[in-house]
Amino acid sequence: MLLRPVIGKLQHKRVVLASSSPRRREILSNAGLRFEVVPSRFKEKLHKGSFAAPHAYAVETAKQKALEVADRMHQARAPFLGLLPAGCPQVSLTPVVNRCPSQQAKDLRAPDVVIGADTIVAVGGLILEKPVDKQDAYRMLSRLSGKEHSVFTGVAIVHCCTRDGQLDTEVSEFYEETTVKFSELSEELLWEYIDSGEPMDKAGGYGIQALGGMLVEYVRGDFLNVVGFPLNRFCKELARLYHAPRAPGTPRPVQHDSIPAVDTFEDLSDGEGGGSDPAPASGGLQAGGARPQAPRTQEADLNGVTDSQPGLPAGLLELMDGFKASKVLLTACKLQVFDVLKDRGPLSAMDVAREIDASVGGTARLLDVCAALGLLDKSDRGYSNTETASLHLASDGEQSLHGLAAYHDGPVWGAFTHLGRAVREGAAWTPEPLLQGPHKWSTEATLQFMRASHGLSKLTAQHVATAFDLSPFTSACHLGGCTGALAHKLVQEYPRLQVTVFDLPEVIKLAGDFQTDAQPSERVHFVPGDLSSDSLPPADLYIFCSLLHDWPDDRLHGLLSRISGSCKPGAGLLLAELAPAEEEEEASGAARRPPGLRTRGVGRRPRSPGQYRRLLQRLGFQDVQAARAGGLLHVVLGTRAPP
Ligand SMILES: Cc1cn([C@H]2C[C@H](O)[C@@H](COP(=O)(O)OP(=O)(O)OP(=O)(O)O)O2)c(=O)[nH]c1=O
User: Fold this and answer.
1) 190: CB partners within 8 A, 6+ apart
2) Strand 498-503 relative to strand 572-578: parallel, antiparallel, unpaired?
3) Buried b / exposed e across 452-464, counting CB within 10 Å, b at 16+?
4) 116 SS3 class
5) How many CB atoms within 10 Å of residue 370?
6) What is the overall mean pLDDT for the chain?
């Protein structure tokens, strides 16, 4: 089995992972699969007693999860169609670049393949899923203590196609079993583990890939199967599906516009299987640019008649109208739709219209499109927020990106509306206030920028703070540290650390308006200054976060060599910057990168960790290491070598 070509078979497809599990996302993206994530809303409540064996339950649940997503994505196409101009092909309203997972759900192109999975633990005839609370976790773990148990993951690969407006599906399903033996667990160990919080979102109440690994005496079988996805078996299944020789007279599989029939994959395998890398996607777009669809040639149809028509440039069409979905999201945020519905849904369109002071018809249309984008749930009783909307799009809450949405709806939208002028005049693709230089920013413009930065920093701070063990450092300086969100996270993580937030005086003056913690720490200090001209506060660790990725090389080199010159031997430099799109896709599946706050428009291509590593080494840093931080950023840490 040649792994890349096997995974490569799906590169031409719109592949959707119907799962919220970060582990599944990581396993599949590490294997090089490109896919979107649309968590299933199927409630895992099938009657366990009606299944002859635990694995049958896991397989059926996996299938229902995948079918629910296939069906929802198929249904979701309808509300958009009215928005398209007459004669416009039915393409996505969502750009492939810069879209959040829930937006991806509603790309108007139906998915080609939906993958669902379900992991359960079986012990003594009992099926254990995720614990509902700590007591439940305790019961599960005590049951596993000192014994062998089985972990089953059921997987369903659903091939979808649309015929006469109806969804047609073909399901391939399988399961994998792994045996795990636990040590005897003392009460103390059990409760310490439960209190770590790790058991709560995992079948059987443990995570073998993390702290739970310490409970395990041995594993027989596929380790990744325990973590949530049997990659080896999945690849074999793909190989079987796409390479299986067809017996004479066997009917061809379902014909579909965008899923070549199985024998078409066989045809393609000659062309793309020769190299170790999957062939570039022929349809759709990759983050960072349009790839017009390659013409399909000689694709066999149901009756064996060949079709040599070139394929439609679906990717280009997606790019052309993708902005509409962004505007819908930004407008709903601005009108506070997600605030109104938070903790209160379901509400009717009329109720929401009253609350946001808008027309009933207009509100109903906006809510419908939000539902189709996967931002709202719609039922007979009305509209309610999805979890993502309550978490990230309502204006309150720890993980709110409302400020970022307002920034994009305001200054960024304005800058891009006049892009033609900027191109003609050679101006930066930058919001007006930033263009005028920081000293000209109005207080409101500065605050708007800071709100955007604050939301994103809070979301990434934990990942950045823990990407490496920073406990050897006692003082750090976050350059361009804005509201201090990362600084506060750092002092929480490292009790000995003092952190200085260094930023422009205009920013530092307003930083106090941003509540980063219930108890502001005395170990965080704010120092005003200009990176390019002022001397930097002393520290034994300097940090940049989401600031440098689009700086031109000469400016970046100038700044970093100045820092290198002022560092004592042993001092650290930590860069947490946007990962290049393809790396980030690999890391997070479909969760594509939102625009960087300080990106000048779509900016230059972010540098890879290798490029930063080489740069740091040239500037006198040693032991340079790189790590990922939450799929969005990569973090590079180097130590100043003695001169
Ligand atoms: C046993 C075990 C399970 N798990 C995880 C894998 C699955 O994510 C989870 C089992 O729950 P599932 O219901 O299979 O998956 P999920 O709820 O996380 O995601 P979705 O339903 O949206 O697909 O437990 C580990 O991460 N490590 C382990 O050692």
Assistant:
1) 138, 141, 142, 145
2) unpaired
3) bbbbbbbbbbebb
4) strand
5) 29
6) 79
**Which residue, chain included where needed, has tokens 């003082």?**
475
Q: What residues does 205 pair with on adjacent strands?
A: none
CB 498 within 8 A of CB 474: yes
Residue 422 token pair: 């900027």
Q: Is the dihedral of CA 547, 549, 553, 557 positive or negative?
A: positive
120 within 8 A of 58, measured Cβ to Cβ: yes
C-alpha dihedral, 322 to 634 to 229 to 208, nearest 10°: -150
Distance of CA 326 to the CA centre of its chain: 17
Residue at token pair 């428009």: 601
Ligand 1-lining residues (CB < 6 angstroms) = 19-21, 23, 39-40, 44, 65, 117-119, 121, 130, 151, 201-204, 206-209, 212, 226-228
CA-CA distances (angstroms) from residue 500 to 478, 508, 542, 643?
A: 6, 11, 10, 26
Overall pTM > 0.95: no
Write out the H or E segment, with its range, that includes residue 501. strand 498-503
Distance in angstroms (rounded) separating the CA atoms of residues 318 and 320: 5
Residue 592 has pLDDT above 50, yes or no: no
At 597 the pLDDT is 37
Helix H or strand E encompassing 615: helix 609-618
| pLDDT above 80 for 416 | yes
Catalytic-role residue among 112, 118, 222, 321: 118
Q: How many Å lie between the centroid of ligand 1 and the Cα of residue 203?
A: 6
Residues 6+ apart with CB under 8 A from 112: 13, 14, 15, 159, 160, 161, 256, 258, 259
In this predicted model, what pLDDT tens digit does every residue of 286-306 receive, in sequence order? 333 333 333 333 333 333 333
Query: Which position has the token pair 């005049």?
Result: 425
